[in-house]
Design brief:
Radius of gyration of chain B: 24 Å
Largest sheet of chain B: 5 strands, parallel
CATH topology of the largest domain in chain B: Rossmann fold
CATH superfamily of the largest domain in chain B: P-loop containing nucleotide triphosphate hydrolases
Largest interface: A-B, 42 and 47 residues
Distance between the termini of chain B: 42 Å
Oligomer: heterodimer
Structural class of chain A: alpha/beta
Helix content of chain A: 55-70%
Helix content of chain B: 40-55%
Shape of chain A: extended
Largest sheet of chain A: 6 strands, mixed
Strand content of chain B: 5-15%
Strand content of chain A: 5-15%
Radius of gyration of chain A: 27 Å
CATH class of the largest domain in chain B: Alpha Beta
Strand order of the largest sheet of chain A: 5-4-3-6-7-8
Structural class of chain B: alpha/beta
Chain lengths: 400, 291
């Protein structure tokens, strides 16, 4: 092993100039396809090519795959690209992708989701958004004013807000609310952190000068463990009057929680956190609305949750996760599936909050079949038809 | 070691590796880069490191990651009890504080943890960093630093440089997305559930007494079970357990003894839901396809 290791380390990448060029072109295609291939990887590939018996495609394939892949998705696509380039098979598909270098992962996900990519915001939105920074003192003042001056707005059902101006003000409020929820949660973290542990390593160090008597105690701070919030939003037709508002709300929440993930479902489930990394709220919401509008047909809450449990839950839901589902519970799928998936989700998460805008309607009872099946597994079932009802959530989240 | 030789040696120690994995293991040694293994639980990721240590005849040093794992538990720690005793014992001797400090922060009081132990081995050890996705992001960043420099600085002692560069194997079950930086530092291999043929080879390698016919039936049956909608898909370890149970019960033909098959399914299925999902009729149907 040793001798071999030296061999390969010392081989200067002097593989024939032609091979080097072909290799570089191949690595460029990989990069264009989203592989993380940098200078170091390129050098390793050259070294490998110079040392190994790469006359055999199988050897070349194996080596390049180990070096160039960094994740399962790469692993699964590698063969196709390799074949297209080195063996001239199915070349069209790869070259098409190769022309469009991905601009970060968010953009890639979005284009995969089938929504039109590219810039969506208009200049005037950009300048307006620029005005409301986080640490802006004027903004802080605005918050206080907003709370008192907008009481009527806070109670208005989101359905009845029609004008663009009103909507804009609601968005602002939602943004602030999200910030406040974040603030409540972080206060809770601070309290938890008050518990201290003795730092033995430091204490002993300090005790030497005192003949081993640990007089100056060194303390260690509690590890900081933030809550994680996962929002699953129903963007179906029956929820359409609410979804723009909640998208804005989710954007605010995601922006302020260090650990938060968002999903939107309709007839199928889409992971939208990457699209929401966009700092400009209006742009992000517009992007999301495009994703959400793309579908039609009934809502499949059960199936969407099943997809969530199967593909995402292991990664995004852990014991300190609060799952927030925003939906009216009108499910065109079978209630059984919804019940089963809710039970599965409950086992994984800390709390499940179900926000239902319909609760605010007079005379509404959660009789929808889906809602009935889901209720036993929900920790908090709350209205979410106006800002006041959302604010009422904060105390609950504080106790989580 | 030559590449071809590597896959032969792996076979000798009972690990059935495909050529892609053999290539990755070879590159690991030649490029001196860590190997990141991803895949579902139970596909034999940890076994790779064990086999690697065995064929190189070196120590396997294992660091099991968990949430909250910190540098103290991963690199080194001082032996506080002994330090306290040493200070007390020297109390009357009138030594200066500096001398005492020098004494109690010497090698003698240092407790090696896996990362330090791995780089201080004379012969390159195999360092297995198991389930890295369970550790926190800070730890990942910290690990990245060690994996690129192979040196550790201990404020009281100085910098410890590596005596040998260990062969580092990282495994991940994908419970958390790893950072791009760590992924780029590593070679990558995705471990999938073995195909039928490979599983037969694994069975015969690990259970030499098994009848080849039975091994084929087991592999075919397990392959069918994995296609069912299960919460916990049985891994290779489960297949081996089940095969051992069947061999122990003297089963020769799965189709001939459906009751035994049904009763021993507990080796394969680890949740109540899955056991209910594989009702006797379902098992019958799957057995029908296998035989």
């Amino acid at each position: 092993m040793e001798a071999e290791a030296l061999d390969l380390k010392e081989v200067t990448p002097v593989a024939g100039a032609q091979l080097r060029q072909r290799m570089a072109a191949f690595l460029k295609i990989l990069r264009d396809n989203g592989f993380l291939v940098g200078l170091e990887e390129t050098q390793d590939c050259m070294r490998f090519a110079a040392a190994a018996d790469i006359g055999r495609p199988a050897v070349l394939r194996g080596g390049l795959r180990s070096i160039a892949c960094t994740r399962q998705a790469d692993w699964e696509r590698f063969d196709e690209i390799f074949d297209a380039y080195w063996l001239k098979r199915g070349i069209k598909g790869v070259l098409r992708v190769a022309g469009t270098p991905p601009k970060g992962r968010g953009a890639r996900k979005l284009s995969e989701a089938g929504a039109p990519g590219g810039s969506l915001g208009t200049p005037d939105q950009t300048s307006r958004e620029g005005d409301e920074g986080i640490g802006n003192p004027a903004d802080r003042q605005g918050r206080r004013e907003g709370a008192s001056a907008s009481d009527s707005l806070a109670e208005a059902d989101f359905r009845h807000l029609m004008t663009a101006d009103e909507l804009e003000r609601v968005h602002e409020l939602a943004d602030r609310l999200a910030r406040r929820m974040r603030h409540r949660l972080s206060r809770r973290e601070r309290q938890r952190r008050r518990g201290r542990r003795l730092d033995l390593r430091r204490t002993i160090h300090r005790s030497i000068g005192r003949g081993g008597l640990p007089i100056d105690l060194a303390w260690r701070k509690r590890r900081h463990k933030p809550l994680r919030l996962v929002v699953v939003l129903d963007a179906s037709g029956s929820m359409s009057q609410y979804s723009t508002f909640f998208l804005r709300f989710i954007h605010g929440v995601l922006d302020r929680f260090s650990e938060a993930e968002a999903f939107v479902f309709h007839t199928r489930l889409i992971h939208v956190s990457p699209a929401l990394k966009e700092r400009n709220a209006a742009k992000a919401v517009e992007r999301l609305s495009l994703i959400a509008q793309g579908w039609s047909g009934g809502t499949k809450i059960g199936e969407s949750l099943a997809a969530f449990n199967r593909h995402h839950a292991a990664r995004v839901v852990h014991g300190r996760t609060v799952v927030m589902i925003v939906s009216d519970g009108y499910d065109t799928g079978t209630p059984d599936i919804l019940g089963r998936e809710m039970a599965a989700l409950r086992r994984r998460s800390k709390r499940i909050v179900w926000l239902n805008p319909m609760i605010g309607w007079e005379g509404y009872e959660p009789t929808a079949g889906g809602m009935q099946a889901a209720l036993p597994h929900v920790d908090l079932f709350a209205p979410a038809h106006n800002l006041k009802s959302l604010e009422a959530l904060a105390p609950f989240l504080e106790q989580v | 070691m030559e590449r071809n030789q590597l896959s032969d040696s792996l076979a000798e120690v009972g690990y059935v590796a495909d050529s892609q994995l053999a290539m990755a293991l070879w590159l690991m040694g030649s490029l001196e880069r860590p190997l990141l293994l991803e895949g579902a639980a139970g596909v034999g990721k940890t076994e790779v490191a064990k086999a690697l240590a065995q064929i190189h005849g070196t120590r396997l040093i294992r660091l099991q990651c968990y949430e909250g794992l910190d540098a103290n538990a991963a690199i080194y720690e001082w032996n506080y009890q002994r330090q306290l005793l040493a200070i007390k014992a020297r109390e009357g001797r009138g030594e200066s504080a500096e001398a005492v400090e020098k004494h109690i922060f010497s090698e003698e009081f240092l407790l090696e943890r896996p990362l330090l132990a791995a780089i201080r081995e004379e012969k390159p050890a195999v360092l297995l960093i198991d389930e890295i996705d369970r550790a926190d992001e800070e730890f990942e960043a910290f690990l990245l630093e060690i994996l690129s420099d192979y040196q550790i600085s201990i404020p009281e002692l100085g910098t410890v440089t590596a005596r040998s560069i260990p062969l580092v194997v990282l495994t991940s079950n994908g419970t958390r997305e790893l950072s791009d930086a760590l992924r780029r530092r590593c070679l990558y291999h995705f471990v999938d559930y073995p195909g039928e043929d490979k599983e037969v080879r694994i069975l015969t390698a690990r259970l030499p007494q098994i009848d080849v016919n039975l091994a084929q039936q087991i592999a075919a049956f397990v392959a069918k079970v994995r296609k069912e909608d299960l919460r916990k898909v049985p891994g290779v370890a489960e297949t081996l357990d089940w095969a051992a149970a069947l061999v122990g019960l003297d089963v020769r033909d799965l189709a001939a003894e459906p009751e035994v098959v049904q009763d021993t399914l507990l080796c394969l299925l680890k949740t109540q839901e899955d056991r209910l999902a594989l009702a006797p009729e379902v098992t019958q149907r799957l057995l029908g396809k296998v035989a």
